[in-house]
Amino acid sequence: MATVGDILIAPEAGWRRYEDSNSQFSYSGSWTAETGITGNSDGSLHYTNALGNNCSFNFYGSKIRIIGTYADNYSTLVDVVIDGTTYNYNQYATSVSRSVLVFEKQDLSLGNHSISVINRESGKHISLDAIDIDENGELNPYNPNLENALLRVTMTDSSEREYQLPTIDIEGFINWFNQHTSTSAASYMLNKKIGTQNSKDYLAFDKIISFEVIPVA
Q1: How far is Cα 170 from Cα 191, in angstroms, rounded to an integer?
Q2: Which residues share a beta bridge with 118?
Q3: What percent of the chain has pLDDT over 90?
Q4: Of 57, 111, 134, 216, which cross-links 61 as Cys (Cβ 3.0–4.6 Å)?
Q5: pLDDT at residue number 91
Q6: Other CB atoms closer than 10 Å to residue 69's CB: what's the count?
Q7: Residues facing 59 on adjacent strands
Q8: How many whole angstroms separate alpha carbon 144 and alpha carbon 36?
């Protein structure tokens, strides 16, 4: 299995690649499209050296890899904002390497996610060569405001559990619930976020009395 820093010419099993030229990527600021370069994924990439320039997109899935370039004129600080949470990575190296796995995140909930890749060093380059996501995932146009709702689940012990989630994640829960019978002991996992803490909550079907979906203003 590839790790950050490895050259990744093609996606590994379980992953699907989208090239930098895909129309679903939204490039903000001055980006240059580089084509016909040996070593780049599919021979092309986009790059910029302006502070604050970014590339944004949405995808459906649970994991993401960013493919880019290492070089001595590349940034040591690139931000990746995933659903409002900021991570970062480094594209600086003393020698040039292309089609490099520069960032990955594999523990996202299965659903829709918004992504922005941002240059944080003026005069230093960042590049987007390609992204890899789940093999059954999908790249979508950028929408920073994913439609959320509140799922409130009432349990057999009279407790209530609440989850603020994208509506597609709530639809997944409802589909699971509707496909089971009252004798099923199967459980469903939901991501629970309290402040900066994230956890996975497993709901057993036979412990659920009812649930409601409440729109979030």
Answers
A1: 11
A2: 54, 79
A3: 60
A4: 134
A5: 98
A6: 25
A7: 113, 139
A8: 32
What does the pLDDT look like over 45-63, one tens digit per residue?
999 999 999 999 999 899 9
Single-letter amino acid code for the residue at 198: N
Residue 50 is classified by DSSP as S
The number of helices, as runs of H, and strands, as runs of E, in the chain is 1, 18
Res 103 pLDDT > 80: yes
DSSP state, residue 176: H
34-41 long-range contacts, CB within 8 A, separation 24+: 37/98, 39/98, 39/99, 40/69, 40/98, 40/99, 40/129, 41/9, 41/10, 41/17, 41/67, 41/99, 41/129, 41/130
User: What does the alpha-carbon distance between residue 65 and residue 115 come to, in Å, rounded to a whole number?
Assistant: 12
- Boundaries of CATH 2.60.120.260 in the chain? 15-140
Helices (H), the chain: 167-178
181: three-class secondary structure by DSSP: coil
Architecture of domain 15-140: Sandwich (2.60)
Q: Give Cα 61 to chain centroid, integer Å.
A: 7
